[in-house]
Structures are given as C-alpha cells and as structure tokens.
Amino acid sequence: VQLQESGGGSVQSGGSLRLSCAASGYSVNYYYMAWFRQVSGEEREGVALIAVHGATTYADSVKGRFTISRDNAGNSVYLQMNSLKPEDTGIYYCAAGPNYLRLWNDRAGYWGQGTQVTVSS
Length: 121
Description:
Strand content: over 45%
Oligomer: single chain
Shape: globular
C-alpha cells in the first residue's frame, strides 16, 4: 500500500490549492481516506475524511472552505482548499484505513510522505 501526495506549494492568504493523493497497491473504494496536517512541534490533526460510501467529515476550522473528494476509477483522493489562511500552513498528509475511528482518532492506517502547504498573509 502506497500513498503519494502532490499539489502543495506557497500561496497568499485567500488563495486556493488542490492536493492530490494517488494510491497504489490497493483500491481506495474499500478504505476510509483522510487528510491530516501537522505543524512543527504540534500534533497531527485531522482535516477531512471521506468514507467508503462517500460521507464526509471536516475539522471545524476548515468547514465551508475545504472539500474532500475521491475518484475511485483513478484510485485517488483530493483536497480542494479555498480561502486559505496563514493558520492552514503545515505539512499535509494523505492517510487510508479500514476503520473510521481508528483512522480519524488514533491515526492508525497507511500514510503518505506529506506535502508542504504555506500560506502567507
């Protein structure tokens, strides 16, 4: 199982970025998929999750600004980030797991290497 993130970069406050996560070695159809982010020295926090059946969960801090989606045919997951704020800065990780609570709460699953997102004011 491998996950590869892409799409990070630097953007000004109010801008947008779209992160992609390409999966290999398994089908995203059968796993819960999520995006987490981490700032140096802080705990990794859940940003968004999409369930096998398509239901979504978002951190309160990103509701209304971020959208998670999946492309089962392309075996990929995306995170559209709009109205970005400096506090959105961090390393964004793609993760996958067979259990919602274990993935979202316990961080138990498969992880990508991360992609840096920097939002300047």
